[in-house]
Each structure stands twice: as structure tokens, then as C-alpha cells.
Amino acid sequence: MAQDRLHSRQNRCISHLSHVTGAEHDQICRFLLGLIIDIHLPHGLSSAPVLCATRALLDYLYMAQYPVHTGDTLARLVEALDMFHENKHIFIDLGVCSDFSIPKLHNIGHHRELIELYGTADNCNTEYTERLHIDLAKDAYRSTNHKDKYPQMTLWLERQEKMQFHYKYLL
Questions:
Q1: What are phi and psi of 88, to 5 degrees?
Q2: In the predicted model, is pLDDT for residue 45 greater than 90?
Q3: CA-based diameter of the chain, in Å?
Q4: pLDDT score recorded for residue 81
Q5: pTM of the model as a whole
Q6: Residue 60 contacts by C-beta under 8 Å, 6 or more apart in sequence?
Q7: Do 22 and 91 belong together in one domain?
Q8: What total of structural domains would you count in the chain?
Q9: 94 and 142 part of one domain
Q10: What φ, ψ does residue 75 adopt, rounded to 5°?
Q11: Which domain of life does this protein belong to (predicted)?
């Protein structure tokens, strides 16, 4: 019974992380490995695969951000991803997820080729589009009465744009 409450509490905490900003993601990555280093898993499962999978994914994330890559760093990138795939079964065994049919996880398998073709990804940043999404979609949605929302959101955005033009005109 206590394990059920703990599992339920963990699920609620994890579910709150479904929309994490880039800055929050960076902060989580800084201390994640330290949090799970001495984790005790249920049913006598070994924590080694959790540590290996987590470390491999963190290694991959940090190496993918290198401003310069060589054949050696690209090989290490692939090794880190392979290490993750070798150990990811533990998350299915623990019931954290049922499979790994995740588009982003599939896409990172192509990073080596993409880096070789187009160069490094160190200049890629999603924070600008996240901010725009908040400004243009979430704020617009909040301004509606939640019925027939798209015309209301469009009107709200038009008004915001007109206010910005007027403000610039006054300057």
C-alpha cells in the first residue's frame, strides 16, 4: 500500500514535467545523475541499467552541443546513444513507459549524419519559439471564453498587433 502511494506520488510529480523549458531542462540535467546514483529499485532490480541509460543519454545531450566535432567525437556520440539503447529496457521493466516509440528519440539517431552534412547543432535554440508560443498561443487562449476559441484568439492577436503598431507610431 505504501508503495502504491509512492508510485502514485511519483507519477504526479513526473506528469508535471511534460512541458519543460530549455532552461529548466538544463537545470534538471545538472543534478539528475546525482539523484539516481543510490536509487533502490523495486523487486530487486539492479540500478546499473538506470545509471548507464541516464549517463549515456546525458553524455549524448552534452556531446551533441559541442561547437566543433571530429570523427572521434561523432563516434562517441553514437556510442553514447548505443549505450542508452542497450539499457533502456529497465524503464519498461519498471513500468515507467510501455515502449520507446518516441519521434525525438528516433530523430537523434540521425544526428551524426546531420552533423556531418550540415555542421554542429550548437547554434540551435528552441527558447525563442517557446517564448513566442507562450505569447502568441497561450496568452491568446487565456483571453477567450474557451468557446469558439480560434476566432477569439485571432481577434486578440490582431488587437495586440495593432496596439504595438500604435505604440511604435507614438514613439
A1: -70, -15
A2: no
A3: 69
A4: 96
A5: 0.63
A6: 77, 80, 81, 84, 108
A7: yes
A8: 2
A9: no
A10: -65, -40
A11: Eukaryota
What tens digit of pLDDT does each residue of 106-137 get? 888 898 999 999 888 776 666 677 777 777 88
* Structural domain range at position 21: 2-118
- Whether 88 and 143 map to the same domain: the answer is no
Hey, how many other C-beta atoms are within 10 angstroms of the C-beta on 50?
21
Q: Quick one: 151 and 97 in the same domain?
A: no
Are 17 and 91 members of one domain?
Answer: yes
82-85, Cβ contacts within 8 angstroms, sequence gap of 24 or more = 82/56, 83/52, 83/53, 83/55, 83/56, 83/59, 84/53, 84/56, 84/57, 84/60
81 and 147 share one domain: no
- What pLDDT digit, counting tens, does each position of 140-162 carry? 889 999 899 999 999 999 999 99
Q: Please check whether residues 104 and 33 belong to one and the same domain.
A: yes
Which of the residue ranges 33-42, 77-86, 110-119, 131-140 has the most confident prediction, judged by mean pLDDT?
77-86
